[in-house]
Amino acid sequence: MDRNEPDTDEARGDDVYQPTHSDVDNRPTDALDPDNAILTDPLEDMASPGYSPPERPRGVTRYGTTQREQREGESLDDRLAQEVPEAQPPEGDSIGDLPGGAGEPVDEQAGTTRAGRLAQVDTPRETGNRTVARDVGPDDWAAPAEEAAMHVDTGADATVDESGPSGWREEPGTER
């Protein structure tokens, strides 16, 4: 057994993790690239980006820098005057603002009235390959994405039940 290799039965603590061979033979022999060397002084390269301090410290003229101002607190009017209003979108850039709905993200075949909770039809009719459900109204005004994507199809072959809830636009507790 080599003198540097500890006996595995008697190895304890740091002896277990000591390397068995030196890496002296594997060191690079060519010159280091000065661009990748850490030993260069960063002040030698004046073109390197750095920090440019402002002309004067920030916040010096703001309210609350003195102890008296901090104790008294800032008035609500002064605090509201510092707020920046949200930028309004340009005219004609939001949903529902174009005449006739031109260019709007609405599918004409799907309809515009959102359906509420969908329930299975009690007496299934012969509808071919179509799945039919009835609208039972909104449920606490929250719907999963699958139900939110459903719309009332008023142009369907079946007759529309006018006595039931018609969707999300109806307030709860109102009757038709």
Automatic annotation (TrEMBL):
InterPro entries: DUF5709 (IPR043763). Transmembrane segments: none annotated. Residues 1-15, 68-81, 123-137 have a biased composition (Basic and acidic residues). Pfam families: DUF5709. Residues 109-152 form the DUF5709 domain. Residues 1-176 are annotated as: Disordered. This is DUF5709 domain-containing protein.
